[in-house]
Structure formats: C-alpha cells, structure tokens
What does this fold into?
Amino acid sequence: MKTVRSVLLIHNEPDAFRGLEETLHEQEIRTCHAHGCGEARSLLKHAGVDLVLTDAVLPGGTWKDAISLVSKVAKGTPVIVMSRVLSMRLYLDTQDGGAADFIVPPMTARDLDYVLIGAMNRVRLDRSTGSRSPLCRENSNSLESFQTRGVYRMTQAFRILSTTMAIGVLAVAWSLGAGRPVLPGLKQASAGSDATGKIQGRAVFEGTKPTLEPVDLKLADPVCVAAHSEPIYNEDGAVNPNGTLPNVFLYIEDGLKGTFPSPSEPVILSQEGCIYQPHVLGVMVGQELRVVSTDPTTHNTHFLTQANKNWNVSQLPGGRPLVHRFTRPEIMVSVSCNKHPWMDAEIGVTANPFFAVTGTDGAFTIAGLPPGTYTLAAWTATFGTREQSVTVKAGDATQADFRFTGK
It folds into this structure.
C-alpha cells in the first residue's frame, strides 16, 4: 500500500490548512505551501510531492485549475479538495472533475489518515451509499472501518435536495447578474479606462556585452549542486540575444499626485535551485511579499535596506512562506542568502502601482496612468540609471525607449 510522505497545500489564505497541517505533522508527513497555482507549478516539479490538498477557491481560480495543473505537471498525483462549507453540489462536482476526495475540516488524525490512504491507493468512497466506487484497487481494513463508521456518509435524499437547491441558487444568481455570473477572484473591468494612458518601450544595450562569470558551486551546498547540471551565471550584466536588457526596473520617479492603495494580491519571491526568481521585482509599500522555497535545504533571506528596516530570516526545507511588508518606498532593496552567497535579487519598493520590469525581450509597459507629465526612471544593477520626461495622454500609448552602454 502506498504511503504519504509529502503533501503540497495549495491555498487561498495562509491559515486555510493550519489545523490539517498540524495533524499531518503529527503523522510525520512533510508539507509545503503554495499560494495558488502559480506557486504550485514549481513545487510540483521539484519538491517530490506525493499528494495535493487544494482549497476549493484559489487566487484567480478554483480547485479545477489545481487539478488541471497537477494533471499536466505531476500526472498521477492524487488531489483532495478541501472546503470550509459542506456542499453536496461541490462534492459531486469535485468527484466528476477528477478529485481523489473531498473533505471539510475539522478532522481527526484517524479520519484524515483514512482519506489519505484512500487517495493514495485510488479508492474513492461513494458518500451516498457508503460503498466503494469501481476505482477500488485493493482491500483495506482501514477503509472498511471508514465505511462502517460512515464519517462522511450522506444520504441519497440529501444528494437530491442539495442538487435541487444548488440549481435554484445558481438560477437566482444568473438572473441578478443579467446572465453574467462573476466568479471569485475575477475582477470586473473598470469603467473610464479610456481616461488613462500608458507608457511602453524597450531597454536597449549598445556596445560590447559583458562576460558573465559562472558561479563556483564546487564547495557549495550539495542540494544546490544537484539542482544544476549546467553552469549558472549571475544575472547582473546579462544582455538578451536581441540586444536588449532584462531585469531593468522602470518606475515613475516624479509627477504623480495622490495616494494609491496597496494591492491585496501578494508578490512572490521564489527560491528554486538555490536561485532567487525573479531576479528583479517590484512591490508597493504595505503590499504582502511572500518568500517561498522549493529547495530541500535551509535558506536565509536577508534584505539590505536604507529606508526600511533590515530583515534577516531563515527558512527551513518545506517551511511556511516568509511574509514581509515594506513601510517606505526604496529603490532598490538588495536581497541575499547568508547560506548561499551567490544568491541575490533586487526589489523596487514604490508608493504607487506604476512600475515594470523588462524580460527576455527587453520590453515594458506601464498602463493605467492619469494624463500628465512624469519623470520615468530606468534602474539597472550594472549599467546605471537613466531618466526621461514622458507626457501621457488619455487613451494613448507613449513610446519611451532607454539606451544603456557598457562600462
């Protein structure tokens, strides 16, 4: 019989699985966290997950997105859907949608053990009859006991009633929404978007490309060495094949008026293969920054700041994401790992949402700007900072290219 050693928890809120996670740890089962499917992708690839527990509602999606992701990235890994509300309609949907099981906390260690055993061995219980489905592959005394005790048994009458009620609720919601239901995590397009403009452009490099030095991993952490079959290079000074620059942080330095609320969505800084990803990122003052790790080794995240307080926190393998909020704007905050000296990243902390980072094509877009004249700045770790005055008109896109030369 297959056993569970590692569980990936895909959640909408960090505390969603707190009680279940404590129960898992009591059974010496390792857990790792992902805030939505974006974080889950890399963990599924690298963390050696045996089973997935997903929240029914996720940032920008639902359990269906989690099952779809697992089927593509870690095919064969069972997925259990957790809901805070007992819903027969949701239970039926998850079973039809490929979930290994459906649970509603709180659960005792014994009950959770039965569910995990069933999921790992592809045994699904029919909650309306208490019998096993045709997916059953083997006899299990624990599962027999689970059936006899009827921990989650639901009657056929409840099945019919809840389905009828669910249809009625959906009908009312559809009529109130004029045939356009709004799903959790999806935002309506704001009215008056034509009243704003955008800045777009590229960061172009001229001159001789710098020679990047490979990172010496000979005496490094064995976990980091095993993660790379090819040499790795520091990203500072990199030039794209098309002659543009990646990792350029662009922001409005002057010209904006008013205050801007911090987004509710967190920004993710990931540690994968003992490398920070992304290398350059932006976050607003007060916005949640989550530092996650897929590496089976200890990291130490150290923020080197001027305007904000320094922050230096260790993160054990499989530990919870580290959460931090900056209190003041700062361009830039350097990030290092005290245990792996080649690991570095740069964070631009701003008081507004109008910033961007160039990628492999060297391009950027800053949208939603009110009409006006602004000072646009472009920061690089190697080639200095450039500024230019940019006038934004309503409904228009203003072109603003930056040129950098080698030292």
